[in-house]
Design brief:
Layout: E1 2-5, H1 13-22, E2 29-33, H2 38-46, E3 51-54, H3 59-71, H4 73-84, E4 94-95, E5 99-101, E6 107-108, H5 110-122
Parallel strand pairs: 1-2, 2-3
Antiparallel strand pairs: 4-5, 5-6
């Protein structure tokens, strides 16, 4: 397993993920970032990262994410999600900008965009 930072001195996480993909390396990757930009998360998903942590997450969340990626726990659940053709994500919708209701009542925000990006990458519905 590798834990990589998103912003590095000579390159960024996207460069590293792309290089790992081009070499077809069998590495499980968690990206560690201090940036809440949804575009970065979408790049990570597209480039094959299996985990993503924010610098300001509680240490147990960071540790559990790294452990889940390292042990391949995501793989078993991933097979079930692909077989079902849908990923189900629960959110309460009361914490903007992460998840909230827009004027029409639809759930929007960072968490919703993450779920859609993951679903797109997996080829399933969110």
């Amino acid at each position: 397993v590798a834990v990589i930072g998103w912003k590095l001195a000579d390159m960024d996480g996207a460069d590293i993920l792309a290089e790992i993909q081009s070499r077809k390396l069998d590495v499980r990757i968690t990206v560690f970032s201090n940036d809440h930009d949804i575009g970065i998360l979408k790049q990570c998903v597209r480039l094959g990262a299996q985990g993503y942590c924010f610098q300001f997450d509680d240490p147990p969340i960071i540790f559990e994410t790294i452990l889940a990626v390292a042990s391949g726990h995501a793989g078993a659940n991933l097979d079930q999600i692909k077989q079902a053709g849908v990923i189900k994500v629960g959110t309460e919708g009361t914490y903007a900008p992460f998840t909230y209701h827009d004027a029409s009542g639809a759930l929007v925000g960072f968490d919703v965009e993450i779920a859609k990006a993951i679903a797109d990458k997996l080829g399933v519905k969110a």
